[in-house]
Amino acid sequence: MATSMDFLSTSIFIPLFLLLLVNIYHQSQKYGRKTKTYHPCGGTKFNQLINYRTLHDYNTNLATIHKTYRVFNPFCGEIYTSDPSIVEYILKTNFKNYGKGAHINNILKDLFGDGIFTVDGDEWREQRKNLVMVSKASKA
Fold first, then answer.
1. Which of 9, 19, 71, 120 has its CA 20 to 30 A from that of 110?
2. Between the CA atoms of 79, 111, 103 and 55, what dihedral angle is there, to the nearest 10 degrees?
3. Cβ atoms 68, 79 nearer than 8 A
4. What is the pLDDT of residue 10?
5. pLDDT, tens digit (0-9, with 9 covering 90-100), for 98-118
6. Strands laid side by side in the 77-81 sheet
7. Which residues, other chains included, contact 119 with Cβ-Cβ below 8 Å and sequence gap of 6+?
8. How far apart are CA 119 and CA 109, in angstroms?
9. What Gene Ontology molecular-function terms does this entry list (predicted)?
10. Does residue 119 sit in helix, strand or coil?
11. What is the pTM of this model?
């Protein structure tokens, strides 16, 4: 009876062990590769607060080192860029995917109201049409 239990335990143990090895290998292949590349870290909001008196110089220095960089915030991350091709991509080529969102709307609403600088989507499109019409009328 003891030999049949040893055989049973080893016959179950070996396939389970092999299954575990295959699973570990699959996970390492799946998650071991870097699928996303991130821009370099330029610092945190605390670095910007420390350099508040020379913030323009601090950000300019970071922009000369890295064309695009991240700044970490306790609540969200921010990406800064001085690369003209990325700016064109965001503002012209793929504008619809880069909305301002509720956070920016809440911050700027007191200053700009519901104007072109604070709204997204259809409201933005309507503001843009009005701006173009006013611009054409003023040239005529």
1. 71
2. 30
3. yes
4. 60
5. 888 888 888 888 998 888 888
6. 41-44, 68-72, 77-81
7. 100, 105, 127
8. 9
9. heme binding; iron ion binding; monooxygenase activity; oxidoreductase activity, acting on paired donors, with incorporation or reduction of molecular oxygen
10. coil
11. 0.55
